[in-house]
C-alpha cells in the first residue's frame, strides 16, 4: 500500500480559498501515485490562528468538503482531508476530520477529542468530540486521531480495540515541541503495534512556527520516512500485513491487564 502525506505550508498571506484550490490540486497530483493521501490539521486556517476559527468555520458539507470530495474522486484515492473548523448549527465549533472514498463519498468524520490550549485557544473555542472512529479500507483499518490526541495513549488503545491497524494523525504541531512529535508518534506505534501516519503542517500559524517533519512509523517503531521542515509530499510504501505479523510474533497486547484499581488507603 502506498500513502502520500501532503505537508501543507500555511502562509498567512494566502487566502483560505486559494489554499483550498492549491491543496485540491496537490491531491489530484497523486492520481496513480498513492492509494491513501493524508492532509494536516486545520490547514485551511492554521491550527494556532484562533481568531480565524469562527470567521472561517464551515458546515460539515461546506466548501472544503466539496473541494476535497471532488479531489478524492478525481485522483481515485482514499483521502484523509485533514481537519476543518466545523460549525455545527445546533452546537459549538468542532475540529473535525473528514475521510473520503476514491469515489468522493464521505467515509467518516471525526471530531477531535482532546483540545489543546488549557484555558485558551482551541480548548475554549471548540467543543470536544466523544467518539472513537475507524475506517475500513480494502487492506487496512484506519484509526483516526488529531494532533494533541497523540499525547493520550488511552484513545489509541481504544482505536486498536476497535480494530485499527493504521493510526492516522493530522496535526498542526509547533516547532518548539518537535522532539515530542517524533517521540510520541513512535511510542504510539510501538505500544499499539500499528502503523502511524502523522502528517503535520509547515509554515507559521499566527506567529507560531510549525514543526513539519511528517512521519511514517511501522509497528516496531522504525521510521519508514520523515519529511523536512517545508512544504513537501512524503510518499511511502508499507505493508499492512506487518501489523498482524508483529502482533503474532510479539503478542504484548494479549498481556494487557485492564480494570486495575488504585490502592486502598
UniProtKB/TrEMBL annotation:
Alphabetized UniProt keyword annotations: Hydrolase
Residues in CN hydrolase domain copies: 1-240
Signal peptide: none
PROSITE patterns on file: CN_HYDROLASE, UPF0012
Pfam families to which the protein is assigned, alphabetical: CN_hydrolase
Family designation: Belongs to the carbon-nitrogen hydrolase superfamily. NIT1/NIT2 family.
Listed name of the protein: Hydrolase
